[in-house]
Amino acid sequence: MTGVVETRDLMLRFGGVVAVNNVSFTLGERELRCLIGPNGAGKSSFFKCLTGQHLPGRVSGRVLIRGQDVADLRAHRIVRLGVGIKTQVPSLMNGLTVEENIWLAARRTHGFAGGAAATQELIAELELGPIARQTAGELAHGWRQMVEIGVVLVQRPWLILLDEPAAGMTGDEVERLVGLIRRINQTAAVIVVDHDMAFVRMLSSMVTVFHQGAILVEGAANRVLDDARVREVYLGNRTT
Amino acid sequence: MSAWRSTGRVHWGWFFTAAAVLLLLPLVVDTHGPTVLLIWALFALSLGLMWGYAGLLSFGHSAYFGLGAYAYAIAAVNVGESTLPLLLAVLVPALLAAVLGAMMFYGRISDVYMSVITLVVTLILFKFMSATAGDAYRIGDARLGGFNGIPGFPTLNLPGSPEISLFGTPTYYVCAVALLACYLLCRWVLARSFGRVLVGIRENEERCALMGYDVAAYKTAIFTLSAAMAGLAGCLFANWAEIVTPSVFSLRQAAEVIIWVIVGGLGTLVGPVIGAIVLGMVKLLLGEQTTFDNALILGLLLIVVVLAIPRGVVPALQRAWRWQRQRSRHAAANPRRRLGGAAEMRR
pTM for the full model? Predict the structure, then answer.
């Protein structure tokens, strides 16, 4: 199968520690995939291999995005291929307003003037109007998550990588986020990294489970989340 | 308040007032002191642009100041007039900064490591230039002169007319025009997308890269522009002093410009200019006495300013001005409450 994202024999080492161990992974066109696993399973390290956030030389194997090997590319060049990236900890320009944060992202893809129109459109779409003039540093965590997702979406990427997008959100915000991810998945392939099982169930997508840097099991959400091996790596020997 | 709301805005009223003061100043005072203050202001402006808006602190910014001075002096001795040497004084530091910046930023070196590398470059240049005594160290007709430096080179002349040299007040006006032009250039740069991305990089470098911006290219570009401005300041300093010595690369020079920027106000363009002019005046005044050590007084001043107004003089004045305006607006909008308050006070 040829996918929009493929990794072949991907390894990531930190000295003697192997964070990503021989991972071969494929994501199809407009597919929604969740990467799950307990803390330290290697899912965020794998995510960073896709986004060019590791120093060259630490990564071996191949990372192909629409057939182009990006293993040695810097993050900005991967983004320019049409990839949108949301990091684990909300990463915004704290001294700039929400509007300015989104404009800065929009400006690169839509130009100086077009960026303003795209920004207003996205602010309306994500209902960020009440906080548009606030500086990002003043926002609560849930809002920061939503603004960072806005910064990603305004670039109109065809591949979206979201690392723990629901962390710190309230129940209502998570429900809204699930709807948003489903909506953007109609035009873009999406990878979501998370360890919140309830959130993953709500997305009801294909799931890849990481354990000790390698893929443990892949499949439909309900089947995978009920898998005994998955329960064991998450919960130890408990089965409830 | 947003970090980039006023980055590109020129307050034309203040600008023309400053220009008028600079124009008329030679009518009331001797221009020798004010000329070097304007040169130091330009030097501080160059660091303030890079540090205040892109977050790049160079501990060795005097390397470009000194290179500009030496490039001018060496070229002027060889060419015999000032037009080409002036261009070289801007281009040589800019070229070094472009190469050094590309190596550092594409090599993922930033923060304190970048500051240390720039400091080391300055120290190397200082040591090298101090060790160039003797006839063997010459470039064309220009002897580098070791610790004694290069004296007696042709100073600025009217472009295309080497016989018409500029001394005294004309040199002062050249420095004033250079400072005002560089200030407008900085404002223009910051008003463009380029300037806004720079502020974004200062705020969050990782996010800027994840928006698709080539952060290393932006940093290299502003590093180069800043070095070119410092080189121009160095060239003007050479013309003011009429001698260039290795002291232009000294640690003292490198430290002073940082102090000027901090005291004036980081994150503004006017702040470094005011900081350089005020502390430069203090330095010139202290230079005439022997009771107190000059460096000690400047150091104490820095400590006092950092403790009392950590963001610098100009941002503190701006905040006070905004607060006063808000208070006036609020009072105008609620006259009854104000009267009531006055009546309350009378009671």
Answer: 0.88
